[in-house]
Specification:
Shape: globular
CATH architecture: Alpha-Beta Complex
Strand order of the largest sheet: 3-2-1-4-7-6-8
CATH superfamily: Spore Coat Polysaccharide Biosynthesis Protein SpsA, Chain A
Strand content: 15-25%
Number of helices: 9
Order of helices and strands: HEHEHEEEEEHHHEEHEHH
Structural class: alpha/beta
Helix content: 25-40%
Length: 303
């Protein structure tokens, strides 16, 4: 694995060849406030594509400007293509939104609308990620008969946690059943469709929406009881140090860093560490040299 810096990533990328394996099908969704984050995620994914790895990145446009779409498209490479999709207009798509959560997040429940029938597996990636390894390696993991593979959430550890699955008893869960984070998911599309996951998750939100905290993530955990498999923690490492200390990724370090929660690098200044690394990748995009304002509110959040 390279050292994660843009310079090393450039060397790593220079030897990547897109003709050795089928392209990995990646899906993500973003609106305008998340445009810089999406550009960083795609750039870091491209920089860390290994020899023989190639990616089809399909982006669900939930309100990006024409300028942002054009800028993000510049992150395409010979081994990374970018395609644009319109968001679903399903009447069941929730209209609720709270805090930093974007309505774009619900589009992951509707991936069946954008995935071709011939695509067997896909990788869902949130926009607020920094990729530090070749994510094609996720597909080396045997998920058995699971619908998807994901990392156990370092904050909400089990379904009975305060922010877990509110109806866990009624749904037949055990108190200690684990709960996954939906920011990085390897999905078996045939099983996803046959299990009607998206429809069931939307039904769950329509029934319990007012009592659901982590929106579609809770819904997916609720409807996939016993049907998901665990990825190594390194594939979705929380940037929150209090949460990350519960994760184990050994000497190899994080493969994907997740800027989950309210404290985003593009919104809060001077956080240091991996946030500085995020800006190194930002400076390889059309948003180079942009930094968040140093307001009193942001300084307090940073502290």
């Amino acid at each position: 694995m390279n050292d994660g810096s843009p310079r090393a990533a450039q060397r790593h990328r220079s030897c990547a060849r897109a003709d050795h394996a089928p392209a990995v099908f990646v899906i993500c969704a973003a609106d305008e406030p998340y445009a810089p984050a999406l550009a960083v995620m795609v750039e870091s994914l491209a920089c860390h594509a290994g020899p023989g790895s190639a990616f089809e990145v399909h982006i669900v446009d939930c309100g990006l400007s024409d300028e942002s779409r054009a800028a993000i498209s510049l992150q395409a490479r010979s081994n990374v293509s970018i395609s644009w999709r319109q968001p679903s207009t399903s009447e069941k798509t929730p209209e609720i939104s709270w805090g930093h959560v974007s309505k774009a997040t619900f589009q992951r429940l509707l991936i069946g609308e954008w995935v071709r029938p011939d695509v067997e597996s896909v990788l869902w990636l949130d926009c607020d990620l920094l990729v530090l390894d070749d994510v094609a390696r996720v597909f080396d993991v045997d998920v058995g008969d699971g619908v998807l593979a994901a990392v156990r959430d370092p904050f909400v550890r089990q379904v009975s946690s305060h922010f877990g699955v509110r109806q866990w008893r009624e749904l037949g869960f055990g108190r200690d059943d684990p709960y996954f984070n939906a920011g990085v998911m390897r999905i078996d599309m045939q099983r996803w469709r046959s299990a009607n996951v998206g429809e069931l998750a939307l039904d769950y939100l329509s029934r319990f929406g007012s009592r659901v905290y982590f929106n579609e993530q809770e819904a997916l955990n609720a409807v996939l009881r016993g049907r998901w498999r665990r990825l190594e923690d390194r594939w979705n490492v929380s940037v929150n140090p209090f949460h990350a200390r519960r994760q184990r990724y050994g000497d190899r370090g994080p493969a994907i860093v997740h800027f989950c929660g309210r404290v985003k690098p593009w919104a809060v200044p001077d956080l240091g560490g991996v946030h500085d690394q995020w800006f190194e990748y930002l400076d390889r995009t059309a948003w180079r040299d942009t930094r968040p304002p140093g307001s009193l509110k942001n300084r307090i959040i940073s502290w």
